[in-house]
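User: Please look over both lines:
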Amino acid sequence: MPNSNIAIAGFQHETNTFSPDLATYAEFMKEDGWPGLTEKSDIIPRLKNMNLPMAGFIEAVSVNKNILLHPIVWASAEPCGYVTQDAFDKIAAKICDGIAEIKSLDGIYLDLHGAMVTQNYQDGEGELLRRIRQLVGPSLPIVVSLDLHANISPAMVELSSAIAIFRNYPHLDMARSGARAYTLLQHLSAGKPLQKTMHQLPFLVPLTSQCTDLEPCKSIYKNLEQLNNTDESLISLDFALGFPAADTYDCGPCVVAYGTDQQTVDTAINTMTAIVLEQEAALSQTLFSADTAAKKATLNNSQLVVIADAQDNPGAGATSNTTGVLRALLKHKAKQAYVAVLNDVEVTTQAHKQGLGARFRAELGGQNNVFNDQPLKCELEVCQLADGDFEFEGEMYHGITAHVGPMALLKVIEEGSDVYVITGINRVQCLDLAIFKHLNVNPQTASVIAVKSSVHFRADFSPIANEILIVASPGHHPCELETVLYKHLRDGMRRC
């Protein structure tokens, strides 16, 4: 691609339509586990070396001195409820205005999620692509990277030139996916047309069943890799498992394929679809109750058990504020047990005001009107305090400095128990051991760790865990899909 001008932009949100909290423009501006909204010349140095699709794309392009990148904006907000129309329109306008300013544009790369829902649009990414196509016309190459949890619509496939999708959950390959997007753009920019097709599958898969380190997804993605290497005319075959906490028409898994001839593309789609359909029953998963998990975890306090409080996972749009697992650990007199990270602004602020060693009474958590959840009235001891600024160390978030605001390590004072809670003023998914180290806790000395996470925690916690228990405790991220009252799904959609 000699003397090519490529526009790059990112706009990411995983929208949980069952969450009460809206993604306002301020949420995209906020520094948390990811950088806040970043514009133009600040994008490349700020995202450098991060495990992000945009960073991977930039790194892949860097070897080609004939390509001039035009960074426009990169924005991401922590998963929650609907993106406000104000936020969507403002960021979409930044992207479109930035594209319009570039002369002799040769291509566009978009770092998107694929499960954005706004107050006015079920298909946020499709609407963004529509606005961009209106500017640049039908032929300009537009390549997109998407999350493995994307709910891919026909509009996304039609309006983009090619799509690259994560293949790991936990998402260890985000940067690699951005690099694959660059490979697709290279192909298109060389004047080589791509045939494309997609197939939406007729069932929903809960996030707790989507881990690619475990069966059946491990085998599904192994087959995907093999198919990608069987025919040179198949340029890219990808599979998104979908984000079932989005009540939208296009919610669910989807296979997309690109190649130099239609027959190859169609064959690949049909083969991959059949592979996934064969695993439908295996994608169903039975979850533990909080009580059962806590009882099981406390039977042998000499070996670490990790409990995943999957339905209160802030990384899937939950409030990270429920107390079900905490109550169960107290009930069963757990020793050296930790719950992390509980989002409670008032309690965290009070802990910092009281200081180290102080004891105070509080109503902990349970503040977000989650069905069958309520605050825990208790006495707390302040064991550690921290500012929430630290370096992530795990493979998924490496290269990122967290700015999650004040945090506290609090002991719940209850006879016979030894239970601690890590609290914070901002929601952050507990997926990195650095969270514990930031509060001077060695997680390997714990007997039980309850993480507010669904799957991402496995990358860092599996190596130190003797056992992992996935729990269905109250929260705004539904994992038992048969109980969910959907209104907008396609007819005939089944639930694993």
Remarks:
- Residues 290-479 form one domain.
- The mean pLDDT is 96.
